Amino acid sequence: LALLRLPETPRVIFKKAAAAMETGQLVGGDLGGTGSSSSSTSSFEAARAEAEQVLCMVRGLEQSDEALQAEVGEISDLYRGAGAGSQEQAAAARASFGLTE
């Protein structure tokens, strides 16, 4: 029962945002996958805010600090590349961090 209450991880949050943008699904109030730079940015900003909130909750922080923001930024960059259509670049970046799909 406790596992059902756990939030999604930041990587899952960004992966969903990137996938939704590629398929044109509604993400964070915007329609992704339209090729619109502002839509892409807005979707990832919403995902970034959610990821920061989750990490603060899990780590018991009241608000994010510079280190947490930098960590979320690195994760966002990995998946922003996937959402923008550069699958090979994103895969290489994930591999460099030891991440697998």
Describe the structure concisely for a colleague.
The chain is mainly alpha-helical and 101 residues long.
Subunit arrangement of the protein: single chain
The helix-and-strand class reads mainly alpha
- Sheet with most strands: 2 strands, antiparallel
Distance N terminus to C terminus?
26 Å
Helical element count? 4
Order of helices and strands: HEEHHH
Shape annotation: globular
Number of strands: 2
Could you tell me the radius of gyration in angstroms?
Answer: 14 Å
The average pLDDT is 74
Q: Per DSSP, what share of the residues sits in E-state strands of 2 or more residues?
A: under 5%
Strand order of the largest sheet: 1-2
Low-confidence stretches at least 5 residues in length (pLDDT < 50)? 27-35
Helicity level: 55-70%
